[in-house]
Amino acid sequence: MKVSAKMDYxxxxxxxxxxxxxxxxxxxxxxxSRKAAVPQKFLIHILIVLKSLxxxxxxxxxTGGYTLALEPRxxxxxxxxxxxxxxxSFDEQKRKMKKDDAxxxxxxxxxxxxxxxxxxxxxxxxxxxxxxxGKILSYDI
Length: 141
Hints:
By secondary structure, this protein is mainly alpha-helical. It has a single domain, classed as Orthogonal Bundle (Arc Repressor Mutant, subunit A). The chain is 56% helix and 6% strand. The chain is built from seven helices and two strands; from the N terminus they run H-H-H-E-E-H-H-H-H. It has a two-stranded antiparallel ribbon with strand order 1-2. Strand 1 (56-59) and strand 2 (65-68) form a beta hairpin. The longest helix is centred in the last third of the chain and has 18 residues, at 102-119. The protein is elongated, with a radius of gyration of 18 Å. Mean pLDDT is 85; it is low at 89-93.
């Protein structure tokens, strides 16, 4: 599986919006950027794509910003990743040749396992994981 920076940023932005669900107050781009650790210049373009895919709504004006268009439990990570073209460790040329050697079969199995894992993870699950991380104390010096 290829995890591009854009896909990573998209999931981070969605997670940031989901952490505030069901609050309907729009989040400003600068706040999403800061909290999700996504550069603002990339975030603008990513949010436009997320809007076109139906994951977010935008509200114009001084008090505008972005909100989730769906409940976090309705957004599956597998769908987001598929729409960003991130599934599959082979390029299309290699897929057409489809070898049946042990290594190719291993890569295919890993792809299937990743897809199965992503199917079981919703944005709500990521929120719960993120909130759980916040409860863990760190004793780093």
